[in-house]
């Protein structure tokens, strides 16, 4: 495999740094060059934030200094807000894609969240052969350009889903970037491995992939699994792993995990600012009900303060008896509405908070105990949307792992 940040990656990084220094010098001297700005749009931004303290005597227009890279694709943010669906790489590159496009053309839905780096760590399309990510790629989306042509022609807003710290492929290739038990890569009960959020090498790896998605034409990068493994608080002192720059820092293990996750999100937002894309993060719904999610390192406000969009996963089936609601799967309207109240109160604490765009449930949770679940269809999906809408949240995303969405739903109830 070529999963490495070896010679090619080092050379690429050195080149980016050299270009950035040159770009900063040009900006300070007031020299502009359109062709250069277009070619090196993404690179000039990367070092500027770290150099700005050295340029205190100058006042530079933000966009000039950043040499913003912009895709040639033309997409407008939906006027009524994003109302989208999740789309796997298989669906995006297969026959189901046309069916989903027709669905969006015949409803109020307007956006697709498309897997670019999926849950195991594979890319869903083939990059160029000289890419360091070529060997982790599957050819699910055989012709990305054709896919984007269809999206553009049908005014479907494209969002790239990039799974971050759940990454069995990278963990097995780079065990030193993961968590180990008895010298071997640790895996959870579903045989999934995670890479280490404390390590900046892991941050770079994922943001590099996100940059490629931005260059393809995606208008937003949505990071998922921005967290430590579930239940990590029960094994954090037993597993073998590095804490990187957080070693010996202030606070306990919980706060170090929270700081690492927050710092990754801030880093990703800064690095992607050169690509004129929005940044969003998926987060557990219950993270909004506690100060910190102690094991996984998620802080609702800490993450929200560093993104353009926050997408809480608030599927009724995933809750226990919260908000005084017993058997939440049976009460999608009440559950969604009560959650929205809590989230709104939290986001009001931020001076410039993100857009709220929750993930809602369009699947049947028949794995729950009998009597605790119900079939989900038109009524249940509409109930969730109505609960959000009544609390002033007008954007949402529908999740069904198989991409088989309910027909006949009124998405503006």
Describe the structure in your own words:
- The chain is of the alpha/beta class.
- The chain has two domains: 7-66, no CATH class; 83-313, Alpha-Beta Barrel (TIM Barrel).
- It has 13 helices and eleven strands.
- The protein has helices at residues 7-28, 34-39, 41-51, 62-66, 89-92, 96-105, 144-153, 168-173, 200-216, 253-272, 300-304, 332-347, 378-390, and strands at residues 83-87, 111-117, 157-163, 180-181, 184-185, 220-224, 278-284, 309-313, 355-356, 359-361, 396-399.
- A nine-stranded parallel sheet has the order 9-8-7-6-3-2-1-11-10. A two-stranded antiparallel sheet has the order 4-5.
- A hairpin with a 2-residue loop joins strand 4 and strand 5 (184-185).
- Helix 9 (200-216) runs parallel beside helix 10 (253-272).
- The model is unreliable at 1-67 (pLDDT under 50).
- Residues 1-37 form the signal peptide.
- Keywords: Hydrolase, Signal.
List key phrases describing it.
single chain, 413 residues, alpha/beta, TIM Barrel, nine-stranded parallel β-sheet, 11 strands, globular
